[in-house]
Amino acid sequence: xxxxxxxxxxxxxxxxxxxxxxxxxxxxxxxxxxxxxxxxxxxxxxxxxxxxxxxxxxxxxxxxxxxxxxxxxxxxxxxxxxxxxxxxxxxxxxxxxxxxxxxxxxxxxxxxxxxxxxxxxxxxxxxxxxxxxxxxxxxxxxxxxxxxxxxxxxxxxxxxxxxxxxxxxxxxxxxxxxxxxxxxxxxxxxxxxxxxxxxxxxxxxxxxxxxxxxxxxxxxxxxxxxxxxxxxxxxxxxxxxxxxxxxxxxxxxxxxxxxxxxxxxxxxxxxxxxxxxxxxxxxxxxxxxxxxxxxxxxxxxxxxxxxxxxxxxxxxxxxxxxxxxxxxxxxxxxxxxxxxxxxxxxxxxxxxxxxxxxxxxxxxxxxxxxxxxxxxxxxxxxxxxxxxxxxxxxxxxxxxxxx
Amino acid sequence: xxxxxxxxxxxxxxxxxxxxxxxxxxxxxxxxxxxxxxxxxxxxxxxxxxxxxxxxxxxxxxxxxxxxxxxxxxxxxxxxxxxxxxxxxxxxxxxxxxxxxxxxxxxxxxxxxxxxxxxxxxxxxxxxxxxxxxxxxxxxxxxxxxxxxxxxxxxxxxxxxxxxxxxxxxxxxxxxxxxxxxxxxxxxxxxxxxxxxxxxxxxxxxxxxxxxxxxxxxxxxxxxxxxxxxxxxxxxxxxxxxxxxxxxxxxxxxxxxxxxxxxxxxxxxxxxxxxxxxxxxxxxxxxxxxxxxxxxxxxxxxxxxxxxxxxxxxxxxxxxxxxxxxxxxxxxxxxxxxxxxxxxxxxxxxxxxxxxxxxxxxxxxxxxxxxxxxxxxxxxxxxxxxxxxxxxxxxxxxxxxxx
Lengths: 403, 403
Prior knowledge:
Largest sheet of chain A: 8 strands, mixed
Strand order of the largest sheet of chain A: 9-8-10-1-11-12-2-13
Radius of gyration of chain A: 22 Å
CATH architecture of the largest domain in chain A: 3-Layer(aba) Sandwich
CATH topology of the largest domain in chain A: Alkaline Phosphatase, subunit A
Structural class of chain A: alpha/beta
CATH class of the largest domain in chain A: Alpha Beta
CATH superfamily of the largest domain in chain A: Alkaline Phosphatase, subunit A
Largest interface: A-B, 33 and 37 residues
Oligomer: homodimer
Distance between the termini of chain A: 18 Å
Number of helices of chain A: 14
């Protein structure tokens, strides 16, 4: 019996409302001049006041030293073992643009790129506009393959989702994106353990990519596509079924909406800003027991390496928090899915600060919301997959285990 | 290999003595007026002095958010994975009243109840006296069933243990206790996965309950019994065998004596008060390597929701501690099996404060024994199943792993 089965078996009903607010890539590293992280630098009167009336801690998305992608990090926050329930990049892309996947579907992430004299000179085709992307996807939709349906749909800028539909396709095939410039796009190859199904799948993918190259030949700069993250829809029990929850997701980016949908949440309408998200929360308050609110830009500015801009993003969220607190959720958790220190310009393995406010938690003397303070919090350092049981317990939704 | 196999494989001998003192339901929640928990409110000079010369921490019985019953919580403290070694309520009841269980035995917990016009009006039959219970159990002992032996034995007040003995009985049958008044007692049903053995078992149980109803018809208020927690004895390796220990248990309540016996401890004679338990400890000191001392009333008063009474219980234990300390055990652990905050009037998921005193542990600057202080202790927050290895190591009983 897995921990998830155990928790699911104990789940009961309650009228209490839970909010999980994820500031993507929240955790950081100290600025060399001040010794303070982005979160510790930000002026966050609301988060600090919350920390004082919360129990705090640090969470590893997966475990010490492991830098997670956003998919597994969110799966963990939703209570799923992120290794057992790994969701492929292709699936996340396809779900993110609203493609419903079935058992015969094989999905991949596509990048438009620039190829000159046979080698890739720009892996993002100069970050073409989303409009150009849309036009090119329409053009590519003219391609038809024998024995398989193909669907390509634009994401933002140079990214698109590609789905092949046919019986017996395998996800055990390699990427064609060489991940650096100066190299030719790769051929799709069956992986050693993929068997005959992978061989047929690789043939189909290569035939499609050859046709795509012809169709895009006259375009510039986006005259080619590369693919990665071939994946099929995994079997994932819905958290709504597991725990008897009505769960709503308020996320602006396709991938996070996709993961939320995958675990059974309803994806709510929202505008792009955090203020819009607070509007959405207020509108939907009565309809759900559990809200997942995802704020993207802390991660984006961390990835840019822009320490000050990340600080500003945190301050923006803080300034809007009173609108959330007015709703007085019985259980409120605020954390990151992983750290994205501006100093590293990318995701990192560092645990994320967490605050959990509930009438039924102890206090721990933490005076401010920050990495150093939370590392001394009453919850200690634990793993993200354990957060949901803790939220459910505080909401009065878990029965006793054993007599 | 499980962790238990690993630890067992490393176990060696030593003359050091270990004491595990469990204050049942020790952990609490802050009183709204003072911000202090029951333990933090209590005047505990001895526990506080101990904390200063100990290393402290917090332990989850099972994991974050999971509220345990007393059975699994104690199994964890004794070093057993509480999910893998789940012990059913019926087995705990039967062992608790001194019934030795074998492979053909199926045990259940019985409540005497009051039924009027077909529905239960009191699930505890007005908490009949233990003497009445004894008389009714004798009366019920007149019932004989074809193909099975039946044994019913009184616990305290309205509770009794019921054991059916026959080859091929199944524990996959449902409770007949509807868990609320105003409903008729349920019929015992085979669970979906129970197969033919469960069907036969349910028939036997229902036939017995029909006979019991006849036998009790003229009684008042206890004119019926309901059953729950049908269970067979699980296979549990003895901790005495696993670690080469002579272990003694000093517990006043049947259930804790039962769990101790189940893992191979000898149950020692003791009177009902903590002072009596200290007498028992002193009498038995030379005979054992490991003592489990169980103090019940912190949990009872927590369940009552009586904050002040729970504080007094903690103070009573503290006042008697010098008698334990005079024996100068090499390893002393004091903790709870789970929290029972007076504010919640029941078991809760909150981790239990722990102090571990040993000549071979580091110090951590914790100045008092309380939840807030222990959360900053040197052992951090961990799970109860990891306590026994730590105690064994401090007793010099664990060899090095690997070369």
